[in-house]
Amino acid sequence: MSPSLLYILWFALLSNLFRLTCGSPLTIELNRNGNDQRECYYILTTDLDCTISYYFAVQHGSNNDFYINYEIFAPDDQYKPIISKTHERQGEWAFVGEHRGEYKICFDSGNKNEKIVDFEINYKCNSGSSIKNARNERREKRKTRRNIKDTNGGDALQQSIEDSLDNIERRLYSLESNMQYYKNRNQRNHHTVKSTEKRITMFSIYGILLIVAMCGIQLFVLEWVFKRSRR
């Protein structure tokens, strides 16, 4: 077997293993044994404009400290984060990965306190042709609304503006998806609260009826005992 074929098989095996593990929840420890250091994890996207979603929650923190900091880096710049959050206890977000390659997310405790964090990250990619067709359709609609003539890609400035509009549209779509997710989750939580309140009310009514029944039984038993004692 040729070395190139072995390399291809090895790369395919690693890719499959990564696909199996990237969507699995992890439990990580920050500042274990007092070591103040960052913990970084990576996810490899296979195409452009993939939707990357992540979730984390601090499950334990020493000295009642449950807040951490985190940063996310794109493949094109591993030194300047595209997302940076501080003093966060939990989060569940999604964003569009414009570049293909390795994205890095780093967690930092922010102090010397030990913390245990549940963490999960995954991605979903659409085919490049469908993205391109969707972009072209959106551009044609914008041109029709604004009566803009097609320059067949000859105007670099117009192309740059169209790319910027696509970028803004992707971000708005990601924001809309997040808002819809939180709306659905809020509705589920509201339904759970209403169901719990209903059950509490029913149990309270059952408890009151049970107490009234027990009082009636006690009165009946006492009356029966007194009648027997008078005979």
UniProtKB/TrEMBL annotation:
Q: What InterPro entries does the record tag this protein with?
A: Emp24-like, GOLD_dom
GO biological process terms held by the UniProt record: endoplasmic reticulum to Golgi vesicle-mediated transport
Residues in domain GOLD?
A: 38-123
What the entry lists under SMART domains is as follows:
EMP24_GP25L (SM01190)
Per its UniProt entry, which superkingdom is the organism in? Eukaryota
Keyword Transmembrane helix found: yes
One Gene Ontology CC term in the entry: cytoplasm
Location(s) in or outside the cell: Membrane
Topology of the protein relative to the lipid bilayer: Single-pass type I membrane protein
- What keywords sit in the KW lines? ER-Golgi transport, Membrane, Signal, Transmembrane, Transmembrane helix, Transport
Q: Where is this region: Disordered?
A: 132-156
Region forming the signal peptide = 1-23
Positions of transmembrane segments? 203-226
Q: What family is this?
A: Belongs to the EMP24/GP25L family.
Can you say what this protein is called?
GOLD domain-containing protein
Instruction: List the source organism.
Output: Naumovozyma castellii
